[in-house]
Amino acid sequence: MPELIEVELYRKAATRALNRTVSSVLISSQKYLKQGTQPTDLRSAVCGSRLVTARRTGKLLLLEIGTAVVGLRFGMTGRLIVDGEATINELLYTTSEVQQQHIRFVMNFDEGGTLAVVDPRSFGNVELNPDETSLGPDAMHIPTDDLAQLFKRSRATIKAVLLDQAKISGIGNLLCDEILWRTGLSPTRAGCSLNSEEIERVTHTLRNTIRDLTKRGGSHTGDLQSERHRKGVCPTDGVQLEQTKVAGRTSWWCPEHQL
Ligand SMILES: [Zn+2]
What we know:
Elements: H1 4-14, E1 22-27, H2 39-46, E2 51-57, E3 60-65, E4 68-73, E5 79-82, E6 85-86, E7 103-109, E8 114-118, E9 125-128, H3 144-152, H4 158-163, H5 173-183, H6 196-216, E10 242-246, E11 249-253
Antiparallel strand pairs: 1-7, 2-3, 3-4, 4-9, 5-6, 5-8, 7-8, 10-11
The protein binds zinc ion (ZN).
């Protein structure tokens, strides 16, 4: 959290500030800037320039300002606030209330209004001209054949493949468990063990799940969400869910229908 779905909502919110000129930048602490980005460089790169585009790859929001690109990562609890309006009021693992001490980054505009990042746990960061080539294609737009190749070439678990941001970007733990549950595949299966029909099912379900949860309002709105606990059962067949650590992440899945 936030995953691709939340960051896409942030991107849409950021477009409200398009064509405005950055007048000043406030950074709560050097620690919130990704290593290598200096406050003075960031300020001189963006102040006096216009916000041209708001793009996104996976969980990374990219603001093109003049000739510079500012990358925003939201970690576990980051939210984008545009003109004082929270994009998402409810986000798992965080408070919906905005507290002054949690505001990490603010851009003010000549025309008025602000674009700010509030991040209580402060795992997110801001980076000037981030290396976009380190990210795999966005999960919503990855071609089916590319996804098939990723699975076929990998002895890692399918969950590890889907969470590897260098291979396919945007999917986090909650979305991943929901996709695999809807697909009926165990997160512990090796990527290379999937047959063509199963790969097709994953790609189809992946897109539909992203669309569905976007409509519902976030990665935490999946059908499996309320059952992610020790006594949780599969919403389809009522069988008690398994909790397994896969790819270093707590995974909930149904041993009955996820094969
Ligand atoms: Zn089940």
